[in-house]
Every structure is written in structure tokens, then in C-alpha cells.
């Protein structure tokens, strides 16, 4: 186990790829990733739970919502860490909740209006929001991060409190 000089340890977990191996495409990579990663995380938690440093809480990247299920199956709580700004997370959250149609019809010149944000023009949105064929696996990953957000007892945000308080308050 790494970092035994700290109360917080960071460890990589096996994603199913051999060193230097490239997946045929991003969809194939995510397919393998979804099969391997929950098992790898479960094994890591077991390894720590069998040591003098048992896992007490799992902080996971928000794009890995399945990690909460793994943690709870091991009898611990977890919380997603939203690494993008609150404004970007709010746009993605509202897209996932159907506040605007993805992909946005480019012939509709109207801006997208979301709570606590300025009106967003089409070029303010992620590319997958205006082009259905643009990175479907990434779109699924980013919009899927909210699949169990209401089940988590803790949400951890990357924000600038004074700058984004109006953005993140309505989400909760």
C-alpha cells in the first residue's frame, strides 16, 4: 500500500488494460472498463480492510457512480467528487434531467436557459450537446454521473464558493 505516511492514501486500480495496450475505440475501452473496474475497486477495499488501515469512506470521481454501490456493498459510505466547475456540472446535470434536448437542434437559435446561469448560446454547450454523433461514450459517461446522485449522502464539489454559490444551490 502506498503513502503510509499520510491519513489519506491514493492508489490506482486495474482498468483491464495491459501496459501499452490500446482499445480498438473508446466504446470498447468503456465496455471493458465497466466490467473490470468495480471488481478491481472491490478487491482494493478488501485489501485495505484486511490491513491496519481499513477503508472508512470512499471518495470517487463523479463519472464513476457505480463506485457508491461497491462501497455500500462493503459496508462503507462514499461520495462523488465533481471535478468540473459547478457551472459545468449544472449544465450537465440539467441535460441529464432533460431540461433541454440533447442534441440541441442547431436550427433553433434560442439560447438554453437554466436556473442560476446566464443564457447559454449553442457554442457555450459541450460539443455532444449539439452533435449527436460527437463522442457518444463520453456523453453517456458525463450524463450518467447523476444516475444515483440522490442516493449519495455526501456530495463533494470543486468550486469557488463566492463565485458559484448561485449555481450549485438550486441543484441540491
Automatic annotation (TrEMBL):
Q: Which GO terms describe its molecular function?
A: quercetin 3-O-glucosyltransferase activity; quercetin 7-O-glucosyltransferase activity
The record's annotation in SUPFAM superfamilies points to: UDP-Glycosyltransferase/glycogen phosphorylase
Which domain of life does the protein's organism represent? Eukaryota
Q: Give the protein family.
A: Belongs to the UDP-glycosyltransferase family.
Report what the protein is called.
Uncharacterized protein
Organism source for this protein? Answer: Salix brachista
Amino acid at each position: 500500500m502506498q503513502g503510509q505516511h499520510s491519513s489519506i492514501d491514493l492508489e490506482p486500480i486495474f482498468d483491464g488494460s495491459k501496459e501499452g495496450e490500446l482499445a480498438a475505440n473508446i466504446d470498447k475501452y468503456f465496455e471493458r472498463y465497466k466490467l473490470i473496474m468495480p471488481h478491481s475497486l472491490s478487491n482494493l477495499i478488501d485489501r485495505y480492510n484486511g490491513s491496519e488501515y481499513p477503508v472508512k469512506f470512499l471518495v470517487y470521481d463523479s463519472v464513476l457512480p457505480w463506485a457508491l454501490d461497491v462501497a455500500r456493498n462493503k459496508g462503507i459510505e462514499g461520495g462523488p467528487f465533481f471535478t468540473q466547475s459547478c457551472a459545468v456540472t449544472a449544465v450537465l446535470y440539467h441535460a441529464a434531467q432533460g431540461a433541454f434536448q440533447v442534441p440541441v437542434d442547431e436550427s433553433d437559435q434560442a439560447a438554453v436557459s437554466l436556473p442560476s446561469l446566464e443564457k447559454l448560446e449553442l457554442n457555450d454547450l459541450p460539443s455532444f450537446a449539439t452533435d449527436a454523433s460527437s463522442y457518444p461514450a463520453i456523453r453517456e459517461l458525463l450524463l450518467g454521473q447523476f444516475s444515483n446522485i440522490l442516493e449519495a449522502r455526501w456530495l463533494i464539489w470543486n468550486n469557488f464558493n463566492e463565485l458559484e454559490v448561485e449555481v450549485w444551490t438550486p441543484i441540491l
